[in-house]
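Quick one from the shared queue. A colleague (R.T.) flagged ELMO domain-containing protein as missing a structural entry in our internal table.

Convert sequence to structure tokens.
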Amino acid sequence: MDDRGGSFVAVRRMSQGFERGNTYHSTSAEVVAGSAAWLGKGLSCVCAQRRDSDARPSFDLTPAQEECLQRMQNRIEVAYDSSLVEHQEALRALWDAAYPGEELRGLISEQWKEMGWQGKDPSTDFRGGGFISLENLLYFARNFPDLLQKQDGDRAMWEYPFAVAGVNITFMLVQMLDLEAVKPRTLVGATFLKFLAENESAFDLLYCITFKLMDNQWLAMHASYMDFNAVMKATRRQLESELLQEDITRLEDLPSYSFLSQ
């Protein structure tokens, strides 16, 4: 954390320390608090805490699931690079999806703060989530733009920074689903890979479900910045519980999927 209010790095980059053939174990020591600007008030990532489930045996995968996991890990390993045209275009597309008709004055601009980035250069906030966190935000903004439409009244009293919250959700899902391990070590992770083998957009869809679930938890708890960790923990518990229900055969069966139509 930068004591001067520098950019937020939720954790060390997700693929750091990940090597083929080795499982990756995160510890709470790897969690880094956010900037003094507002994350220091309690809005920090709680996603890399060690869980008892880390000690569970790995699950065998079908060839199709192994291929899907490999492609997923390839996505996770891509760091955001502001010098790449593809990444620049994705960032511009995110702005266009969030604010159609409003011209973006530059990839480094005070305008980004309107979306919930900490500073005028959003690339500094992608360090914890990589390029996949931008892809997730873009997918969400294009398909479910309502959360980007800031509302007046009570909701505004408890608003959270949309963009950086989204980066945290990406990281939380990668950790919860054990996607950096050679094989999933939890039933939640193994269950998700079945969905991923059937739907290549499963991670992006689950991201949207999770964002909507988190937003619902945030409003129900009348949360503030100081409550962000509690909201994320509650979101993760609810999501894990739903993924383990016996009658869930696809993501659309999750109870929280209904939030997408609200």
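The chain has a mean pLDDT of 78.
The chain has eight helices and no strands.
Added to the table.
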